[in-house]
Amino acid sequence: MTSVGEHAPNFTLKNCNKEDVSLSDYHGKQVLLAFYPASFSGVCDTELCTINDNMEFFASLNTDVIGISVDAPWSNKAFAEKYGLGFELLSDYERKVISSYDVIFEGLGGLENYVCANRAVFILDKEGRITFKWVAPNPGVEPDYDEIKSMIEN
Fold first, then answer.
1. Does pTM surpass 0.90?
2. Out of 16, 44, 49, 116, which one is annotated catalytic?
3. What is the share, in percent, of the chain residues with pLDDT greater than 70?
4. Active site residue 49
5. Which CATH number fits domain 12-153: 3.40.50.1450, 1.20.1510.10, 3.40.30.10, 3.30.450.40?
6. In whole angstroms, what is the distance from residue 95 CA to residue 77 CA?
7. Residue 13: exposure state from Cβ atoms within 10 A (0-12, 13-18, ≥19)
8. What's the whole-number average pLDDT of the chain?
9. Domain locations along the chain
10. What letter would DSSP give residue 92?
11. Per DSSP, what are the bridge partners of residue 90?
């Protein structure tokens, strides 16, 4: 389980081009990790597009954004291209990262035994320490975007 004040678990996942991306690559920058259940689903589309609409704000505060789902890299690539997303989407197809961050959701869309990421947002400081954690009570709930922006500013 991950808690505010702890160092975020490191990981290496495949991006949309099947290249390895590690959390440690972002050392020295603030990072917003956005876990999402599934590409091309209504709430996920809204959430990631809202985050994308705020990329200038995040960049102005030296904050990089990383989206993580259990979707395959090619699905994430099609998703990023459809919406013109300007940040990395990483594929946790082995479900190790959602486990280490304790953001597992089972039964999405009524599919018994289907395991995906719950909707969750973590903000990490420049040293990789968790400064903010929000986990949705269920995947249909969006985060408070104003709260996220406020936490990044602090």
1. yes
2. 44
3. 95
4. no
5. 3.40.30.10
6. 18
7. buried
8. 92
9. 12-153
10. -
11. 68
The predicted-structure confidence for 67-110, as pLDDT tens digits, reads as follows 999 999 999 999 999 999 999 999 999 999 999 999 998 766 66
Tokens of 103: 């953001």
What tokens does 74 get? Answer: 């090619």
Token pair listed for 50: 């809202």
Tokens of 151: 């936490």
State the DSSP H helix or E strand holding residue 35, giving kind and residue range, or none if neither.
strand 30-35
How far is Cα of residue 113 from the mean position of the Cα atoms in its chain? 22
- Across the range 116-125, mean pLDDT stands at 94
CA nearest 3: which of 143, 124, 152, 127?
A: 124
